[in-house]
Amino acid sequence: MKNDRQPPRRPGSGDEPVRLQKLLAEAGLGSRRQIEGWISEGRVRVNGQLAKLGDQATRADRIRVDGRDVTLKPKRDSETQIIVYHKPEGELVTRRDPEERPTVFRRLPRPKQGRWIAVGRLDINTSGLILFTTDGELANRLMHPSREIEREYSVRILGEVAPETLERLMAGIELDDGPAKFERITEQGGTGANHWYNVVLREGRNREVRRLWEAAGCTVSRLIRIRYGNVELGRRLFPGNWRPLTDEERAELMALAGLRVLERPRPRRSAPGAVKPWRSKPDGGSTSGEGSKWGRRPR
């Protein structure tokens, strides 16, 4: 029999009740999917009662995770932190590794509140851009397939790739977890046996870029994520370093996540050598103040 019990409400809140996982994600405890796992495992209580999936709560309720009280402050957009990190090869996107291999979190700054949540993952052999935020709701929206947010990668392929193979990769290939395809493929040149391509897709399944090329009979010798949504890696952010998003990047990213209507800031005079953020063009391409999206190709 289905249990429709809701934890008792505490008085004194003017907030409308929302799903428990959404409330905790907005507080920066984790992504909604991660918190749903905690609820299923019986790790969350609301006002003394064991929480279940589907329960709602407000910021006035007493919420405990693993026996510890969770402080839910009134949410302000200015409190949400977002940074971009250039992950080098050899690092894991995890907080703890049983083999004690290096992880991305050891290089990140301490957040003002909450904790860093990775927007997607990159495998140990893939380098490039990863976004981190303290807002679990934002992270969930940026990763959710329904948003169809573009991810762009620079890929080095060993050997020649026939035009028919590129057409197949754009038409779609059946993988173990369903069909997949690239939205765009742009040849970037190369020397000797190596050839570079920029590829764009609108989802983030596990090792999807590598698996697509391998399914087409190609060998990936290097893979770098160079863009997520409107945020570009650029040439000035070196591996192992991070930077905060600019106000304009932040506003556009929040709009992509559907969290606010995009308001264009007033034009500002760019500093000499400053990089202009990515912009969509009517033909689906992109432009940048650097002249090319990636600039100098990695060796």
TrEMBL record:
SMART domains: S4. Its EC number is 5.4.99.-. The keyword Isomerase applies. InterPro entries: PsdUridine_synth_cat_dom_sf, PsdUridine_synth_RsuA/RluA, PsdUridine_synth_RsuA/RluB/E/F, PsdUridine_synth_RsuA/RluB_CS, RsuA_PseudoU_synthase, S4_RNA-bd, S4_RNA-bd_sf. Residues 18-80 form the RNA-binding S4 domain. It is an enzyme of class 5 (isomerase). Residues 265-299 are annotated as: Disordered. One of its GO terms (cellular component) is cytosol. Keywords: Isomerase, RNA-binding, rRNA processing. PROSITE patterns: PSI_RSU, S4. It holds the Pfam family S4. It comes from the Bacteria. GO terms for molecular function: 23S rRNA pseudouridine(2605) synthase activity; RNA binding. Belongs to the pseudouridine synthase RsuA family. This is Pseudouridine synthase. It comes from Allochromatium humboldtianum.
